[in-house]
Design goal:
4 helices, elongated, 2 domains, Histidine-containing Protein, Chain: A, four-stranded mixed beta sheet, alpha/beta, single chain
Length: 139
């Protein structure tokens, strides 16, 4: 009886070798990837807190926490526009995969009260490039 041995062709060997190398690279890089995730989370939180929106309007009412690129927002704001602003502020940051917006909306101050007017004016100042909402006092 004649046995014929068929050697794998070049493409099969190349695919096998490539898969083996890829598996080794992934296994070796896993600890670095875990560290990079923690570093990325820290950078996301720092960038969110350094943003103009957070610094001028959200810092007293919204907390930001990132875990594996998932940003969780918590806190209380007076209206749904600020809740949306909080999410918009972090959603475009590098490394953010998703945003879990747990910010709650409390009933706003009575319309036309001093607190209501202050909030409305400060919110409008956010979008004015030539006016600083930080350095402007509404009294």
């Amino acid at each position: 009886m004649c046995h014929t041995h068929v050697a794998p062709n070049f493409n099969q060997r190349t695919t096998y070798e490539t898969a083996k190398i890829l598996a080794l690279v992934l296994a070796a890089g896993l600890p670095a990837a875990l560290w990079a995730t923690a570093e990325t989370d820290r950078r996301i939180e720092d960038a969110a807190k350094a943003s103009y929106n957070y610094h001028t309007v959200l810092k007293d009412s919204v907390q930001v926490e990132s875990k594996d690129g998932v940003v969780t927002l918590t806190g209380t704001v007076p209206d749904k526009e600020l809740r949306s602003l909080a999410e918009d502020t972090v959603s475009g940051l590098p490394g953010v995969l998703t945003v879990d917006n747990r910010v709650t909306v409390t009933p706003p101050a009575p319309e036309y009260s001093d607190d209501w007017l202050t909030l409305k004016i400060n919110t409008r100042l956010l979008v004015q490039a030539n006016v600083s909402a930080v350095n402007t006092q509404v009294a």
